[in-house]
Amino acid sequence: MIVNGYTIEPGVDLRGADLRRANLRGADLQRANLQEADLREADLQRANLQEADLQRADLRAADLREADLREADLQRAYLQEADLREADLRRADLQRANLQEADLQGANLQKADLRRAYLREANLRGADLQRANLQEADLREVDLQRANLQGADLRGADLQRADLDFSAFPLWCGSFGIKADKRLVLQLFAHIARLDYSNYPQYIIDFINSFPDTIKNGFCDYRSDVNRI
Length: 229
What we know:
With 229 residues, the chain is mostly loops. The protein has three domains: 1-88, Pectate Lyase C-like; 107-114 and 123-180, Pectate Lyase C-like (3 Solenoid); 184-221, no CATH class. The chain is built from three helices and two strands; from the N terminus they run ββααα. It has a two-stranded antiparallel ribbon. A hairpin with a 2-residue loop joins strand 1 and strand 2 (6-7).
């Protein structure tokens, strides 16, 4: 397969290649070297990029729907506005990658390394982030509705103005130190205030009962379907 004068095959060396707007749909680029390649607006739907080296590659606005990026190296890659819906990114290395406004709905990011990745305003609705490493990632204004964050490491991540409704929020030490906004804090308090704590030790009952209305019902100002108590 020849595209833009380049041979497209597994393991090929395409460092710095100009593949802007190239039709690479379904291409087999497993273990290919695509470091610093220009893949802006390229069609990579269902492409096999498993274990490919995409360090610092430019994938802005690329179509990567259902692409296989398992164990791919995407460190410092440019993925702004890329379409990664239903992409398989299990164990991919996305450290410091720029994913601003990328669409990752339904993407599989299990055990992906997203340390210090920039994901501001990205769409991660329904994404699988189980055991992903998101330490110090920028997740401001990210849509994480119905995302699975079980076992994800969010230490130091910035989740201000992120939407975590109906997501599996990680209640373990990996969520310590996250940067949370007022909405998320009130959402967590709303859940605490609505527990059945009648059999708890008296000091816990007294503490929860002492919550002012602004704490118990503050989240109701954000979601009208949450009943006041």
